[in-house]
Each structure stands twice: as structure tokens, then as C-alpha cells.
Amino acid sequence: MGKGQSFCRGQIALYGKKPVLILALDGALCIAAKLYLPRIARHRSDIDLSETPLLLRNSIVRAADLLRCRVTDLRPMADGLLCVGEGILQRVECAARREMECQASEQLPAGVVRSTWRAPRWGSCGRKIGGVPSE
Hints:
The longest helix has 21 residues, at about 85-105. Helices cover about 15% and strands about 30% of the residues. The protein has one helix and six strands; from the N terminus they run ββββββα. The protein has one helix at about 85-105; strands spanning about 10-15, 20-25, 30-35, 45-50, 60-70, 75. The model has no long low-confidence stretch (mean pLDDT about 80).
């Protein structure tokens, strides 16, 4: 595997000095998600890679950090042998889609989306259902 490396979906590659997971390839461009070491502070879009090969066990994919890069900027990691399964790729894509929807709803101005949370009223035990109304 040399300079003319052909990458595929699900392969782990190096972008600069950072490992990335290739999600999609389109000619000379690709979409990749960054890999991180597990931390105490987790993000809602983190996917744990605990059921993958030994070298990737202690890493997470952050679906919020997607990058579009050229294939020529990528280098193979471990001679192109590190790959993840289709199930993990689908989980990462689902998390990325959900993250984009959450970010889009967070960008809306206040008051556009009605909240479902209602604060409790002081002195109220809730609405009485059934029975005599005078009780």
C-alpha cells in the first residue's frame, strides 16, 4: 500500500496526525468522522468502538465532528487493515443525522418551538380525576 492507496467506506485512515473513520467516498472527496480517546466529558453524538478490533477498543467516534477532505490528504493506518463493520457505520451515520437535526433546532430563535416541560404550580396537587368534585 503506497501513495496510490484506494480507500473504502469504514476504513480508518490518518488525516494529518489524527485518525478518522471514512463514512463516504465521492470521487476525490470523502466525508470522515474524527476518532478520540474516551474522556469523562462525553458528547451526545459519541459512539463507542468497544466491539471493534483490538487497536480501536479505547476510542470513540464523535459524529458531531464530520469533515470533508480530499482522498489525497489521507494516509492509510496499519497498512489499510483497520476497518469497522457496517453496523457501527450505520450507528455513526444515525448519530450524525440526529446531531444535525438537534443543531438545526438549537439555531432557531427562542419561542419558535414550544417546550413540553411544564413547571409545577405551587399549592397544587395536580388535577383531580374522577370522584366527587367537592372533595
